[in-house]
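Dear colleague,

Following up on yesterday's call, I've attached the two folding results inline so they're easy to grep. Please treat them as preliminary; we haven't cross-checked anything against experimental data yet. The first protein's sequence and structure tokens come first.
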Amino acid sequence: MALCLKQVFNKDKTFRPRKKFEPGTQRFELYKKAQASLKSGLDLKAVVQLPPGESINDWIAVHVVDFFNRINLIYGTMSEYCTERSCPIMSGGLKYEYRWQDDSKYKKPTKLSAPQYMCMLMDWIEMLINNEDIFPTRIGVPFPKQFQQVCTKILTRLFRVFVHVYIHHFDSIISMGAEAHVNTCYKHFYYFIKEFSLIDHRELEPLVRMLQ
């Protein structure tokens, strides 16, 4: 298998257990539908489109959780190459630096190493997607008004993982034979956020040449 899963499961903090959808729920059915479309070899631009009659918030929720799972796995495979010494700043090349801010420990944008930033990011997303007030799983419970804003913030920060991996660690991804998997995941992510205008176009600038 291209991705070295043995490496991933040796990580005590980087890798999180996969977030699963409950069988029998609407979101589980949507997830199965999305995965079936992906595996069928359809054009990724078509795969991300909202299925007729489905809720856009459910569709976004399914993809946010799935992207969290897959990007977490991608970073987990190469996290041994992303260390305090090799990546003392969370960045995307010389031009882009990403600082961490949340509502608890880091109330002001704070400079962190890439491993620290990734750890904070994955903990933060895991907390949000497990919060029933933001990602409700019970039938009939509505999404909060700010749901898409929260998802925009999650996806914007997940995009920064791609930026860091592509610019600073792609040689490691290639050496593990995982570049095809990472590229496909990135394309899927990119078409999804473009389809629903979920990330400010300025955030995409670090990888704009690659996109072209």
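Below is the second protein, in the same order (sequence, then structure):
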Amino acid sequence: IGAAKLVVVVAIFLLTFYVISQVFEIKMDANLGHIFAHLSLKFCYFLLTATKPPRYKCGISKACPEKHFAFKMASGAANVVGPKICVEDNVLMSGVKNNVGRGINVALVNGKTGETIDTKFFDMWGGDVAPFIEFLKSIQDGTIVLMGTYDDGATKLNEEARKLIAELGSTSITNLGFRDNWVFCGGKGIKTKSPFEQHIKNNKDTNKYEGWPEVVEMEGCIPQKQD
């Protein structure tokens, strides 16, 4: 707010001085007047850009502390726009990258280095839950796991799959239902429940889209795994 006020004050001062010089016919060469007006505009633009708020990794609202990975993610929008997962300013999954699909979308990240290990999606409406279960069992300790739903991520989920996801730190997976929107960030070998989880129920009375709830978004800073 202070920087914006400064810009306004300086702009008013410069423009006022220029107007006064014209009204009272203060001797000023025409070219010099144009140069002065041009420089005034450039100076105001400089102040505005110089005070532009900084951009943080993945577009999150504040910088992460040292030894933390920045992330931001969003569930799908109905069955039209796919989910998006970003870690350390790298978009791991999105519709633009053409690597998302109906069901549960999963990105695996190395908990020490922040490097991407794998990205996959599993159709929980028309697909088979068995490959998803095998995938969950194969995740190595120390891996960061990010998940987001698209269209429907729950119909084919069984008790075994839900239990494996709960072991990654999820608390909402037991209640995930047909066409609910859900995003989650946990880890293999986590000792506590993850603080990174958002869940919106599919409810015809509150849905933003016909048959689907609104998009759910989440951002945060994941602690780097220490030896």
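For the second protein, one point worth flagging: The mean pLDDT is 87.

Best wishes,
A.L.
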